[in-house]
Amino acid sequence: MARYWWKVMWLCVVLLISCNAVRVSNKEAADDFRLASYKTFDFQSDATAETAAFEQEFGLLRNEVAKQLQKRGLRQSSGQPDLLVNIGAMISEKTQTRETRFGQDGPYYTGQRRYTWKSQEVPVGTYQEGTVSVHLVDRVKNELVWRADAAAVIPNKKEKLEERIREGVEEMFKEIQ
């Protein structure tokens, strides 16, 4: 029995380690999109008061997107770039809940005959989730040619945040040609 328990435990650990903490969705490209058709890129400059508060995090995002595009043969140019990169981000506060169970959270005193107990969601903590959208726009045609969204829980430590951003951007650009 003890051997079986350890096998199950190791399987759970392996599954948890292999799970990706970043969820990439809405990855789509225009029908005729080929990244090799473009030579240069630059970032859309739409700085607002909201983005100024997160300038360091946006800087990390821009650096990682630039690395991925440079790795694929593009170079950054502020003149007349072929591609414009637009990055959008949203942070939302989430509440983690658990469901009550009769054996664990059941009533201690049932003085009335018509007493009923119902399972319900109980808040146990809060966390922040960040969602990032990256859009590549053909500057000449002024058309969206590629987009992807990624969402993940935002870690509290800066080192973990940098790692999560790197992981997310790599996952977004994984299959781009």
UniProtKB/TrEMBL annotation:
Pfam families membership: DUF4136 (PF13590)
Q: Which InterPro entries match?
A: DUF4136
| Top-rank taxon | Bacteria
Location of the DUF4136 domain: 33-175
Q: What is this protein called?
A: DUF4136 domain-containing protein
Q: Which organism is it from?
A: Rufibacter quisquiliarum
Lineage runs: Bacteria, Pseudomonadati, Bacteroidota, Cytophagia, Cytophagales
